[in-house]
Structure formats: structure tokens, C-alpha cells
Amino acid sequence: MKNYSKITPEGTRDYLFEESDALRAVERQLADLFKSRGYKKIVTPTIEFFDVFNRESAGTLPEALYTMTDAYGRLLVLRPDSTLPIARVAATRLKGATLPLRLYYNQNVFSRRPKLSGHNDETSQSGIELIGAKGLRADLEVITMAIQALELCGAPDYQIEIGHAGYFKSLCASLSCDEETVSAIYDCLESKNFVALNT
């Protein structure tokens, strides 16, 4: 049997010295920005029940999830995203809280990526969730925060993409596609593989 004790699994990596310091510095700068705008930090478990992500709106295909079982045989996943676990907390522990809720996070997420895709399976994810606010003012707050976060991180050239699952569903319905084709289109959009999308 091969011994893997001296390497990291595919899709993961070690952060050493200056690189590790730079990562933590960016996390601190983002936390300071989010806190200055009234957002409060939330940390969710690295392991969640599969049911949290077992829905069409989850945006993650089941085969992309890192799965395992607990001592009772229940299916668990390493969180592939932070939004749904935060929605779970908002619907349970923060159910009676005064709205809107302004929450921010900085935690690792895990998603199986194709080999040689240029993406790690474990990535650091920072962001905000504005819950219970709607309308143009709420949209502008979130978009403005995204721009400020990107500029704070020193992103020299960026684009803001605004998407909505309803657009995707409507477009696919108008194409009269089977489930397999819809899944392939979604994969191309998610991985930004526009060459494959155009074929």
C-alpha cells in the first residue's frame, strides 16, 4: 500500500511563511471593513448535514461534495459554501432576531474540482450576508461592499457579476432541455467554461 504521509491531497495546499501572513492580513482587513459597516462575524461548522445542501437552490452538485457519515450513519458533508449554513442559523438560532441581519464570515469551504482545473478543493471564503432587507438600497449596499472588499484586497482588474437562479431556470425552460443538458450548462457556467458553453 502506498504511503501518502508526506504529500497533501489533490486540491489542497500548505501556506508557508509570507504567504500565510498575507492570507491572514487580507482576512483581518476584510473583517475590519465588514465590522465598520455594522456586520457581525459568524462561524459555522466545517461539517454540515447533507440535507442542508440537498436542494436545487444549493448551487452545488452532489458529486462535488466531500461526504462522510457520522456514528449514527447520517450523511455529512464538508461545507462547500457559507451561504446555506448561515441561512440555517438565521432560520433557527437567530429566528427572533431584529431584521435586517448583517453577518460576515471568513472560513474555508470544500468542493471537489476537476483535476487540472486550476482551482483548489479547499479555499478560503470571505463575504457578507444581508438577511431581511430588500429593494434597491439593500442591493446597493451589498454591491458596494463587494467593490470595497475587492479594492481593499488590491484586485487590479475585476468584474462584478450579478446573477439570479431565476434567470438560469427561465433560460433553460425556454430551451426545452433535458436534465442532463441543464446540468452540463450549469457546470459550464459555474466553471466559467465559455468555450464549452458555446459548443
Characterise the protein shown here.
This protein is of the alpha+beta class. Helices cover 37% and strands 16% of the residues. The protein has 6 helices and 6 strands, in the order αββββαββαααα. It has a 3-stranded mixed beta sheet, sandwiched between helices. A 3-stranded antiparallel beta sheet has the order 2-4-3, with no helix packed on it. Helix 1 packs antiparallel against helix 3. It is globular, with a radius of gyration of 19 Å. The model has no long low-confidence stretch (mean pLDDT 91).
Task: Give the gist of this structure.
With 199 residues, the chain is α+β, with helices and mostly antiparallel strands. It contains six helices and six strands, in the order αββββαββαααα.
How are the strands of the biggest sheet laid out side by side? Answer: 1-5-6
Helix content: 25-40%
- Content-based structural category: alpha+beta
Measured between the Cα atoms of the first and last residue, the distance is 43 Å
Element pattern in H and E: HEEEEHEEHHHH
* Radius of gyration of CA atoms, rounded to a whole number: 19 Å
Count of DSSP strands? 6
Which range does the strand content fall in?
A: 15-25%
Averaged pLDDT, please? 91
Please count the helical segments.
6
Global shape: globular
Low-confidence stretches: none
